[in-house]
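chain below, 225 aa
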Amino acid sequence: MSAIALVSGGMDSCVTAAIARETWPDLAFLHISYGQLTEERERQAFNDIADHYGVKKRLDVSIEYLAKIGGSSLTDQAIKVADAHLDSKEIPTSYVPFRNANMLAIATSWAEVIGGGAIYIGAVAEDSSGYPDCRPEFFEAFQQTINAGTKPDTLVEIRTPIIHLSKAEIVKKGFDLAAPLHLSWSCYRAETLACGTCDSCALRLRGFERARIEDPIPYAQISHE
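prediction:
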């Protein structure tokens, strides 16, 4: 039996894949693009991480209809990617409406076909004040959807191993597992040099700073958010 790891190419999914690898020698990697600004760079990170782990079973699909729907600064050119405001309790413009549900649905379909017993996703509850589909209760509800909507002999469990960790703890976990964080890409804006000032860059940088570990990727500038 195999497991599926959703791998965007970012830090959280990279560490989650490393955790999954500890338990599942037969690991499949799933990458889902949705018309985001850094689509090509994230795909490169996905393939680099998959190469690092020698993963042969890969699925790379696009759900560009999320870009057509819009409503997010990651997909809608009319909405600017804002600088980080990590203390804000408002839903950020980078939220892609109900994205994780779309991704989990695809992962579940693939799991039924390949006999996958688990789906690993690098959701973090620290982000949940901004992203409602990163909350533990969302994944609990979606698990019930999987149980109700798949074949009787299908047993697929959603696993969110870093959901209760801080970004600093995720960084430390990644280094403990020798996860290839130097291959990951977190920036929302740029594909050549990480901007350092968007929400994702700022969260990542703060995690490395609090972990007292140097981030292995270069930045155009460092946010002091």
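The radius of gyration is 17 Å. The helical segments are 11-23, 39-53, 65-69, 99-114, 136-149, 167-176, 199-211.
thats it, cya
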